[in-house]
Structures are given as C-alpha cells and as structure tokens.
Amino acid sequence: MIKFGTGGWRAIIADEFTKANIRLLTAGLCALMEEEGHSGATVCLGYDRRFLSKESMFWAAEVLAGYGFRPYVINRSSPTPLIMYTVKQMGLPYGLAVTASHNPAIYNGIKIFTAGGQDANQGITERIEEACAKLDPGEIKSIPYAQARASGLIREGYPFNAYIDSVLQMVDVEQIKRAGLRIAVDPMYGVGLGSLRPVLLTCRCDVDVIHEQHDTLFGGRMPDPSEGALKMLSDYVVEQKCALGLATDGDADRLGVIDEHGRYLHPNTLLVMLYYYLLKYRGWSGPCVRNNSTTHLLDRVAKAMGQECHEVPVGFKHISAKMAETNAIIGGESSGGMAVRGHIAGKDGIYAAALLVEMLAVTGKSVSALHQEILDT
Q1: CB under 8 Å to 12, separation ≥6 — which residues?
Q2: Which residues are CB-contacts of 231 (< 8 A; sequence separation ≥ 6)?
Q3: Phi-psi map region of 204: left, alpha, beta (phi>0 left; psi -120 to 50 alpha)
Q4: Is 315 in contact with 7 (CB distance < 8 Å)?
Q5: Calpha distance 349→77 (Å, rounded)
Q6: Distance from C-alpha of 30 to C-alpha of 67, rounded to nearest angstrom
Q7: Is the pTM of this model over 0.70?
Q8: Which of 84, 31, 86, 24 is nearest to 59 (CA)?
Q9: Residue 166: C-alpha distances to residues 9, 98, 305 (Å)
C-alpha cells in the first residue's frame, strides 16, 4: 500500500520501496493527471545520490511514457530544489523526485510536486493513494526507457545553469564579492555541493569542502544537518577561521549552519535571522509562516516590525500553501527547511545558504553579532 507522509512517500529499500511499488505510485499519479485533464503532459523527473535512486527514476519514467505522458528527465543526480524550480520554470503540472531526503540510508522514497514547483498537498497525495488502491499492479503500462527515449517520448535535459542563475539573481552578488568570505561546506555526501559550490565561487567566496564524495551510506550517519552530525564541520570552521559553515541534507532542500565560533545555529534562529534581515536590511514588507513546532520568537520579531506571523501544522506543504495565500516573505520549520518569496514555493537549502551569505556581506557583521542584534531589538 502506498501511503504518503508529511514529506512524500518513504519506505525501506527492498521492503516496501520496490520496483513494483514505484510503478504503482507512478501509475496512480498518471490516473490523477488524466482525471485532472493533463493527459499527455510533460512531467519533470529527477533523483538524488541514494541507492537505487537513478534506477527508480527510470522505472517511473517508463510508466509515465506507457500512459502517454512525456517525461522530462534530469539524468544526473540533482538537488530537489532544482527539480522544483524546473517544474515552475517549464510551467508543468507535476514533477517527481526520487529521494528520502535526510532519512537513513536504508530508505528511499518519492516526492511529488505540483504546478509552481511546490510540495503536493494532502488532498493530492490522498487522491494518488486512492488511485493506487484501485490499480492492478499486473496491469500497469510501461515502455522501456531506451525505446521511449529513442522515440522522443522521454526527453533528457539538465537545467542546472538556469537554476544556478535563478539563485544568483536573487542575491547581491557584487556585495558578496567585496566581502571576501571564507566558507566551509559539508554536503553530507549528498547532492548539495554541485549547486552550492558554483553559487559561492561565482560570488568569489573561498570555499572549503568536507564529505563531498558519493557514498550511499552517508558515512554511516543520517544525511541530516543537525547539531550532532556537524561536529567535523564545526571543528573545521574554528581551525580554519572560516566566517561560516554550511551543510545541506541528502537532497539539499534543508540547511544546517555553523557560526564563526563553531557553534551550531538552530534552524529556528536561522529563520528568525533571515526574516529580520529581509525586513530591516532589504526593506521588504510582509508576513512570515512557521509550523506549530517552530520558535515563537518569529512571532515577536514580526510584531516588533509591524508584521504578522502565521502558524500552520507540520509539513512543508502547509507552509507553502499559507505563503501563497498571504504573500508571505519567508516560511520555515524547525528542521531546517525554508522558502523565500520570489523563488520556488518549496524548501531550498541552496538559496537559503546564498541568502545567509548575502546577509553577512551586506551587514558586515558575523552570525553571532547579528543574532545579538535581534535579541537587543
């Protein structure tokens, strides 16, 4: 049985994460798209560095082609935000990423995105579950990948440059160049480095990297940028006198931060700092959104700046929906996922990292100094 959680469908590899279930979920998505009038539509697919991610993406593409849809395949391991951006940029009704995000290495999964590049809401995922329950797994249609590609049903592309350019257009590149920051990056063996490093190097930052190789076991730890997992990054920042340490989770939609003293910056604090920066230093105006397990300091900052903070249930799809409804500046959760108005509606660890670097460059202050400034406000 296919059952979505707050961040997509995730299951243990070779237990419930199987070729049969991947085909079933994809066929359920096809049934939903046909019901919505999207027959024959293009659908973007991508995958991360996890075991079987690439093969799973091929199986999903074969089913989409079998039902007459036209898969647009990003045939290189890619961050989830790149796939979401592509759905938005190409004006597609749906997208699909094979990833289990920050879960242990024995897991894999699939995230579904809707128009505009945001996480599928609960209504959509429930309808996919219902469609899957009605399908006979032995009757699912598919076309072999090589055959579908040769006939033009499957198209491959790599919109990497467009995504990188979109991030760079959202930050003050020249100001960051002048700051000359040294930054340590830990992609946690995931896909974040391929996008974060080009962004930082374009901004003339000095970039040091740890844990960049491809390791489907993620060094024996969860690819989760939490405090306990970033001890090596913390030590590196202090030893090498870096201005900042940045870590992305397995699919790079979440961010972890180490300040100049090697201290872990809790995602709650990061969210507050970026909102404060956008209001005070960029001069933006608008509300913010958090889930019900995220700091109420955000509410106090919003109130002090004449703005409003909206609370939603856990699950980033609720944050994305509320941001769209209220035209919020920023939305986030205590696990390190956040979105900023004007880019994509879902979590983006790459853009959040670039915005944080801009914050240091524009203010000329360290992370710890900016945090204190907020507390003194």
Answers
A1: 106, 107
A2: none
A3: left
A4: yes
A5: 16
A6: 7
A7: yes
A8: 24
A9: 28, 23, 29
